[in-house]
Write a structure and sequence with these properties.
Number of strands: 0
Number of domains: 1
Low-confidence stretches: none
Strand content: under 5%
Radius of gyration: 20 Å
């Protein structure tokens, strides 16, 4: 059992660690119902990161 784990350890590290990091560090979508709600969140004295996405 240990030998099997040891053989796959580089694969686990190579694919697992970046995948977990991506899950933890990715931007989550914010649901906004209207343009007015968007305008209300912008310009309150805090820095804002905007990422526009068009799903076509």
């Amino acid at each position: 059992m240990y030998e099997l784990f040891r053989d796959f350890l580089p694969w686990i590290i190579g694919f697992g660690v970046p995948f977990v990091a991506w899950l933890l560090l990715r931007n989550k979508a914010t649901k906004l119902d209207s343009v007015a709600e968007f305008d209300g969140r912008i310009g309150q004295g805090k820095p804002v990161v905007l990422k526009f996405f068009k799903n076509t």
